[in-house]
Amino acid sequence: MKLIDAFIPIFSELSTLDQKLEEDSSLDIEMLSDQLSQQIAHSKNTLLAEGFEIDDFDKALFALCALIDEKVMNSQWASRERWAKNTLQKQYFKSQTAGTVFFETLDQLNEFNEVEQNIREVYLYCLAFGFTGCYFDVGQRSRLDEIIHANFKLLNTQSELSLFCHKVPQKRQLLDDNLLFSQFKDEVWVWGPIAFVLISYLLFRSEYLTSLSQLINQL
């Protein structure tokens, strides 16, 4: 099992979250918070039962919390100001600087460590879902594209790459030949019976990998 597998329900929720956060949305803040809390608890229990360390879970969860908080705060949802008073990053990590810490953590991941490669995959998915963090300014998007490209290659090919941010120390790492980007092969973003999940997985994976490949090729 990979870390990303346990977070499938949360990514599934995120795929429709933008629509739920429209200005006139009737989405209840307590309901959303409770739903996410339950999914996070389930992911935690699943990963711990599979032998993952709590620190590894926390690193991956931090990325998801940062992504969800950013989506909420960038929306026109009427309850976003209430959310800002008790964001997920505050609840779980007592943090208010996820936009920078996200990239600091990402930059420190070791590409020779299988578990940390699992964590990197979660961060890459968060970036693919639109997380920008400290690169929110339009003029910084090229840097963000480079980070996405770098992490894709760190999971996929052998090359010397650098992850960098004006607030993050520069770091160069070399990827082992044997660390291939196979993680995306086992992902599913939907709930449901096993048969439905498998069918949805095949359809989704093809579409996602095509979209991600197009994104990488444009960088």
TrEMBL record:
Domain of life: Bacteria
Positions of transmembrane segments: none
Xref: Pfam families: DotU (PF09850)
Type IV / VI secretion system DotU domain boundaries: 3-203
NCBIfam families: IcmH_DotU_IVB (NF038228), IV_VI_DotU (TIGR03349)
Name this protein carries in UniProt: Type IV / VI secretion system DotU domain-containing protein
Annotated source species: Pseudoalteromonas ulvae
